Amino acid sequence: MTSAAERRRAVAEAGHEGDEATARAGLDDPVAAVRATALGALDRLGLLSAEDLAAGLADPDPAVRRRACQVAARRPGDEPPALLPLLADEDGTVVEVAAWASGERVPPEPGAVERLAELATGHEDALVREAAVAALGSIGDDRGLPAILAATGDKATVRRRAVLALAPFEGPEVDAALERAKGDRDWQVRQAAEDLSD
Q: Nearest Cα to 153, choosing from 185, 175, 196, 191?
């Protein structure tokens, strides 16, 4: 029997060579890395079905769910797969990628702005808060602005992202936040605020 590394390589190559059968077989592999690679391979071939993607988003392994979120972010169509359940995933790394993917959706998924705002201000993982803030800035919905403003008081990495996320917004509260950020102790936060104020 071939090793997991060999199967993963074969599935990845199949995505470049038009070999749907090999790529599709990877979806049922017992190793998560192979299943995740199969999602990407079938997506590259334009042959990933909505059912395949839904199964990836519900996979028991977080690595597969993360890859499925990445694919779902670019998924065209009138009914893209729901990412909202992944914004409440038990694995923080999945929530982080789902937050990023939610920010790529045009239009945003119903309920995403509210959930992202909750994550931006209340999640224990700073990477999730940062991704949620970035997504809110990308979406540019006024309902997300209070969470972005609150994030300008978070740790440095989140503050930097929050300042950048203010770009699509205007108003006195935005101006005040940018002015405060110009005096931030982190030079990257200060630089971001200066860039947005020019």
A: 185
pLDDT for 26-73, tens place per residue? 999 999 999 999 999 999 999 999 999 999 999 999 999 999 999 998
Tracing tokens 């779902």 back to the chain, one arrives at: 72
Q: Which residues contact 76 (CB under 8 A, 6 or more apart)?
A: none
By the 8 A CB rule, do 143 and 110 touch? Answer: no
Torsional sign, CA 78, 79, 81, 83: positive
Q: From CA 69, how far away is CA 75, in angstroms rounded?
A: 10
Q: 33: left (phi > 0), else alpha (psi -120 to 50), else beta?
A: alpha
Q: Which two tokens stand for residue 76?
A: 């065209």
Q: How many C-beta atoms surround the C-beta of residue 16 within 10 A?
A: 11
pLDDT at 139: 97
| pLDDT category of residue 80 using cuts at 50, 70 and 90 | confident
pTM of the predicted protein model: 0.93
Do residues 133 and 102 make contact, with C-beta atoms less than 8 angstroms apart?
no
* pLDDT mean over 125-147: 98
DSSP string, 140-185: T-GGGHHHHHHHTTS-HHHHHHHHHHTTT--SHHHHHHHHHHTT-S
